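#help-structures
NK: newbie question, is this the right format to request a structure? protein is SCP2 domain-containing protein
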Amino acid sequence: MDNEIKKKLRGLAGVISKLVEPLNEDQKFKETFSDIEVKVLLNATDGEYAALIVIDKGTIHVEGYKNNPKKNLKKKVIDWDGLLQTTTPIFIKFLRSNEISIKKFIGKVLTRKIKIRGIKNVLMLRKVFRI
């Protein structure tokens, strides 16, 4: 991996990384996201690690962050554009895209099962996982 040692990602970050890293070879992904720069933090409240998905002009990679103490995940520290925070089972449903509708998603936000900041950037992930 070019002259840098890739740090092993754990928990949610490792799972997300295995899902999105193959998109770097996908031409459709490169064309769709060629002019987009966004960072979305995914935090599983029942896990130990959070995943920061970085889309940078047609490339995508994931960084892992320990989610304790909570100050590790602050916007000022990581500089994320969007935040999605919930439990692992709800994440899995969200990432599969076809298992959770927008109506159910909004219902979970209203009942506070999902915490979301920067909704436009978070919903962009649905487009990423549909490719």
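mod (FA): yep, format's fine, and the tokens are attached above. The first strand starts at residue 37 and ends at 44.
NK: thank you!
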